């Protein structure tokens, strides 16, 4: 009997040892995966950084070429003006000399002839400078005849403005990409808590103190102010935005359809169970939730956003939240692999002492204003 017990104990120890080796090997594989993920992320960051450097070089070179053209034209025009100034200067020198000579002649003549002969002096011809040359010089040096090619300059400026507008329409590139994953989100009124008013189009949820006369269904939340989307998704990538302007309390995120709908358990709150992920805003503070674990976001305290974006990648197992106004990252969860269909979910919150009556509105992502 003792030998049997020892044999069983030995087998148990061997089993535990094998399990330990398996767990240790798994830890080694996970560490290798971590290194692989870091390398891949750094490689992508490096490639993107190089492309931005290339764009900067292209823009810097184009700026250099454009300014050089303007400088070349300006130099030619300036040189022409300087030459005309020089012409006028030389002419004034000659006139000064002529005036000086004329003054000497006048003094000499006045000393050697009678006043009666003064008329003869007035009709003496000019020896060095003629009226014709003065007239031609004044004509050729008229400032109004020297013009810049303003039309070409305006065209250059216009093309530069158009380039800037195009770049602004394409950045942030993250927003441009996420817009391509835009989802049509329609809220399911049959899941909404009775104190929520869902718009006829299913694109907004508003809290009311009045308990709505709505059918009692198994899918309806009865203790939390939640509502989820009609359609779920189980592949690809999905992005949606919610307008939170003027609100002091809200929650929004994603959930599996298995989230509890009834009773007083906190699991029915968004992010409190393993079925859902959310970001919560309350009186200026932001918190991310999943599986009942609270993630404080102190760096966001006091910040106000007009829109909140939620991005989900089934291939990457990611749920990411961001301030869509400026594409500011709020928090990102990695689920590894999603086990079921996901639905968009939101909670507009209670009235919060009269400060939170505004609805949560689903946004048309394709009409998002460009970030300047």
Please write out the topology.
Elements: H1 2-112, H2 118-122, H3 131-140, H4 150-170, H5 173-179, E1 196-198, E2 204-207, E3 227-228, E4 237-243, E5 249-255, E6 276-282, E7 285-290, E8 293-296, E9 307-313, E10 318-323, E11 328-334, E12 343-347, E13 360-362
Antiparallel strand pairs: 1-2, 2-13, 3-12, 4-9, 4-13, 5-6, 5-12, 6-7, 7-8, 9-10, 10-11
Q: What is the CATH C-level name of the largest domain? A: Mainly Beta
Q: Spell out the CATH superfamily of the largest domain.
A: SPRY domain
Write the element-wise H/E pattern from the N-terminal end onward.
HHHHHEEEEEEEEEEEEE
CA-CA gap between termini? 82 Å
Class based on secondary structure composition and strand pairing: alpha+beta
Give the DSSP E fraction (strand runs of 2 or more residues): 15-25%
Instruction: Count the DSSP helices.
Output: 5
The low-pLDDT segments are 115-124
Largest sheet: 7 strands, antiparallel
Q: Which of globular, elongated, flat, extended, rod-shaped describes the shape?
A: elongated
Q: Can you give the helix content as a percent range?
A: 40-55%
Question: Based on the structure given, which CATH architecture of the largest domain is correct?
Answer: Sandwich
Strands, total number? 13
And the CATH topology of the largest domain?
Jelly Rolls
- C-alpha Rg (nearest Å): 41 Å
Mean pLDDT: 88
Query: How many domains make up the 3D coordinates?
Result: 2
Strand order of the largest sheet: 1-2-13-4-9-10-11
């Amino acid at each position: 009997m003792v030998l049997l017990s020892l044999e069983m104990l030995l087998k148990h120890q061997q089993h535990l040892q094998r399990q330990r080796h398996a767990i240790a090997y798994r830890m080694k594989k996970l560490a290798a995966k971590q290194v692989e993920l870091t390398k891949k992320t750094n490689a992508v960051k490096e490639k993107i950084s190089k492309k931005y450097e290339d764009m900067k070089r292209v823009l810097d070179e184009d700026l250099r070429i454009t300014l050089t053209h303007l400088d070349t034209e300006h130099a030619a025009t300036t040189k022409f003006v300087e030459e005309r100034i020089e012409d006028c200067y030389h002419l004034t020198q000659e006139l000064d000399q002529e005036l000086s000579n004329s003054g000497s002649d006048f003094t000499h003549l006045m000393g050697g002839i009678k006043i009666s002969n003064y008329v003869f002096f007035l009709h003496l011809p000019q020896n060095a400078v003629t009226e014709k040359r003065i007239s031609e010089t004044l004509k050729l040096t008229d400032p109004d005849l020297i013009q810049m090619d303003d039309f070409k300059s305006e065209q250059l400026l216009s093309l530069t403005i158009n380039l800037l507008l195009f770049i602004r329409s394409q950045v942030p590139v993250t927003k441009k990409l996420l817009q391509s994953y835009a989802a049509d989100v329609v809220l399911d009124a049959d899941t909404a808590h009775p104190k929520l008013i869902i718009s006829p189009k299913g694109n907004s949820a508003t809290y009311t103190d009045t308990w709505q006369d709505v059918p009692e269904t198994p899918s309806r939340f009865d203790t939390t102010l939640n509502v989820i989307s009609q359609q779920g998704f189980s592949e690809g990538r999905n992005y949606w935005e919610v307008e939170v302007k003027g609100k002091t309390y809200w929650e929004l995120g994603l959930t599996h359809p298995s989230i509890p709908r009834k009773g007083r358990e906190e699991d029915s709150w968004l992010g409190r169970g393993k079925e859902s992920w959310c970001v919560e805003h309350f009186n200026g503070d932001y918190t991310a939730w999943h599986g009942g674990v609270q993630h404080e976001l102190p760096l966001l305290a006091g910040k106000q956003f007009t829109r909140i974006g939620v991005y989900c990648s089934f291939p990457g197992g990611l749920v990411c939240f961001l301030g869509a106004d400026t594409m500011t990252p709020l928090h990102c969860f990695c689920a590894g692999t999603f086990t079921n269909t996901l639905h968009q979910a939101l909670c507009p919150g209670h009235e919060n002492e009269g400060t939170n009556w505004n609805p949560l509105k689903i946004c048309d992502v394709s009409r998002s204003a460009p970030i300047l």
